[in-house]
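Hi W.,

Here's what went into the run:
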Amino acid sequence: MNNLFNIFLQPFSYDFMLRGLVASVIVGVVCAVVGVYVVLRGMAFFGDALAHAVLPGVALGYLLSGGSRDTLFWWALGAAVLVALAVGRISKHAEIREDTAIGILFASMFALGIALISTVRSYSVDLSHFLFGNVLGVSTRDLVLTSVFGGVVLLTIFLFYKEFLVLSFDPVLAATLRLPSGLLNNILLILMALTVSVAMQTVGVALMVAMLVTPAATASLLTRRLWQGMLVSAAIGAFSAVTGLYLSYYFNIVSGSAIVLTATAIFLLVFLFQPRRGVVWKKR
Amino acid sequence: MYPRTHHQPDQPILDVLHLSVSYEGREALEDITFHLHAGERVAVVGPNGAGKSTLFKVVAGVLPPTSGEVKISGYGPRGHICIAYVPQRSQVDWRFPASVADVVMMGRIGQVGFFRWPRRADWDTVHTALEAVGMEPLANRQIGELSGGQQQRTFLARALAQEAELVLMDEPLNGLDTPSQEAILSLLDKLRQQKITVMVATHDLGQAASHFDRVMLLNHKLVRFGSPQDVLTSENLLRAYGGHAQLIRGADGTTTLADTCCDGEEEHE
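Here's what came out:
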């Protein structure tokens, strides 16, 4: 019995593990809740692009601060908001299709970010942290930023719940009710940008889209109402974060990967075995 | 906050003046002028791509007119939330995680207002609306589990919950079986009792003739607008539909039109 306890408690006798745990749970929950909108509105590709497009901002901050990590969150945030709003505009006026525009922007921003970082000698460790996250490097300051901005995202979603619901389900109704659709859309984009910045430290840009999409997609298989979907998605996100961190500790796997793979495993289980609707049920 | 404008009571509920809309240089609607009085029921007919949906969207204030104006009870469309738009069923994401009651409540969020949650009275209104369309027993169903007629009635309940005075329905009877069509048509009678004005885009000229006060024949221009007998003549129909129409004159002198089409807005000439 004591042994079992030890397995669960031992990792968190280290402060950095505990900070990492709290940060990943917050990130897991925030990504999962925002992800419900991402899945409903078919914005998975946009989310992926946004995460990648943050890299040049981070790289710039990294170069200007001489390799210090303290200001990187703000650089990421600035870049994410800028890109989110820019893509929001492009998709409205473009001559080319939205996904094409996003594809061009996303790859080129990512390339620019890598180019900038690679100008620094011995860049590879830092680059891999940006790409795949560095849960163990979460400082107390990072934790405060994560909580505050994660809280802002969740609170905003709570406050605009019914407006976002209408906007996602029926934009024409939003217009006939004279909702400020443009403003609300931009708020939603900014929430995604905040989420991406908050999650960068823990999961990194490369795997971010999985945190946005996988728990929400799993929840959509299990629920019939939007708020239920958000709660279930948040629970899956938090559970994946904790489980992933244990896996990472005991099997020496990169934490971001471990978290994402846990979320994927849950998705597969639900997809195959969910009561009445699962693939396995239908086969019978 | 949600803006609201007061009505001028003696104005027509809907006044459309020299309305034109063009998309990318192509004229979707050309110089449309008409007005509707409260409680009227109007069928809008015309071939595919005639601009019916466009007309509805401009009236609803979703789409800006290129020129001309739309006045609701004497005011421009900005600020009015008394218009309800019931979309074509094919335009709705039926897998969306919302129950029937949720969808109807969406119509009320204008009255609820920002940063507030629906109150008891709002839920009462929602359930009264569901009661009125006979959907109360299915209030907790997910919308994807409904039949076509039930889906259509849910959206009518939403218009009621919205306290709409002008309801625009885009092809509500398309693809419904006869009993469901009858149910929707008899609901329109209920709306009339409440002085709610209804505009319905439809392909069914027989229904347009038998269930509506006035018929609007549209093909980019307003071909004719008046009583069904005056509008649905073979001459007018040929003008509106051109070669697409097959006119069948019945023994009793009625004219039926077999339209070659059914959904979609594409088929521009």
